[in-house]
Structures are given as C-alpha cells and as structure tokens.
Amino acid sequence: MITVGDFSVVTMKVNLGTMYDKGQGVTQDYVEAEKWYRKAAELGNAEAQLTLSMRLVGKTESNYWLRKAAEQGNVHAQILLGLRYEFRTSAPPDYAEALKWFRKGAEQGDSETQFRLGVMYYVGHGVPQDNTEAMKWFCKAAEQGQASAQHALGVMYYNSEGVPQNLVKAHVWLNLAGARGYTDAPKLRDEVAQWMTSAQIAEAQRLAKEWKPKGRD
C-alpha cells in the first residue's frame, strides 16, 4: 500500500527521470532516465507508466505498462492502447478491446477518445454500425474543438447520415474544422455552399464566428 509519504518519493523518481531525459541540471542520459521512470512506474505512477511504455515501443513490455496506466484512468494511455488494438499489425485487430478503451476515455470527457469511439460506431467496428450513436460522440468531441469530429459532423449533415440533411450545419462544422487545420474541410465546405442560398451562407458564417468550444462534460 502506498502512503502519503510515498507520493513524494514517487514524484522525486519521476522528476529524476525527466531531468536525465531532458538533460536538466545533469548530463542527458536516456538509460538513467528509463531507470527512474521504471522505479516510479513500479510504484504505480500512471504518468511514469505511460512514459516508460513510450520508451519501450516495439517491445512486449510496452503494452504492459500502457495497460497499467490506462487502468488507472490515464486518458492518453487509454487512447493509445485503443489505437494499438484497432490498428495492430502483429495480429488481427481487436475491435472489442479498442472500443473498451476508447469508451473509458470518452466517458471521462476526452475529445480524442470521443472521436475514436464515434468512428467505431460509424464504421461498425466492434459494435453494430450506428450513425445515431456515432453522431452523439462526434458531437461531444466537436463541441470541444476536435477538428476531425467537426469534419465528420459536416460530412454527416451534408450526406444525411443519421440526421436529415442540414446544409447550414454542414457548412458551420466544415468551416470550423478547416479553421483548426483539417485540410480537406474547406474544399467540402465550398461544395456545400454551392447548394445554399446567400442567406443560408451568411447564417452559417455567423454561427461559425459566434461558436465557442465547450469544456469537458
């Protein structure tokens, strides 16, 4: 059992790992950094477990530490673990496991895992294909400013996937996605605009300008 006093010890080990990792006040030494990250990871520090996993990519031990961090609720570990199951090349994808970890992150309000969960429902990986459920998770991510989810919503409103066609909403979400660097969004937004009236375009532009991201649920 870790006591309150142990947490300062764990923090010290993480800090030492970071110092050696970045060469802060000491000679940069990745081997020494890994040693201290491992000590903290073995004491249950989720960030150290995640960092150690990243340093061990390509080794079986990497997934062990990544799962340890994910099980503690670390959302970065949860999305990475989900992606490893979804896109693994050493064995067939395990969509059920991917879905499980994406859902855990999504339910914590993380926009990246909300988007990935939406994709799973959109394409029917690990669950029956369900555009309504996909839109629910895309909306949660898009409202936080996640560009890929915003693009997905624009496409769904344009193509009437799971919702009636709404060109104004399609234009708004594609406009927002483009502003956040989603490179394909402006071209599709302009395609949508060809089917809109001047009044609809003006309304969509106003809504995009007034839009503000929401925080986590």
Explain this structure.
The chain is mostly helical. 71% of the residues lie in helices and 0% in strands. The chain has helices spanning 4-22, 30-42, 46-55, 60-71, 75-87, 95-107, 111-123, 131-142, 147-159, 167-179, 185-193, 198-210. α4 crosses α5, α6 packs across α7 and α10 crosses α12 (198-210). The chain is elongated and about 65 Å long.
Shape descriptor: elongated
Strand content: under 5%
Low-confidence stretches: 1-5
Over the alpha carbons, how many angstroms does the gyration radius reach? 21 Å
Show the helix and strand layout.
Layout: H1 4-22, H2 30-42, H3 46-55, H4 60-71, H5 75-87, H6 95-107, H7 111-123, H8 131-142, H9 147-159, H10 167-179, H11 185-193, H12 198-210
Helix pairs in contact: 1-2, 2-3, 3-4, 4-5, 5-6, 6-7, 7-8, 8-9, 9-10, 9-11, 10-11, 10-12
What keyword list fits this structure?
12 helices; disordered N terminus; mainly alpha
Provide a concise account of the structure shown.
The chain has 217 residues and is an all-alpha fold. The chain is 71% helix and 0% strand.
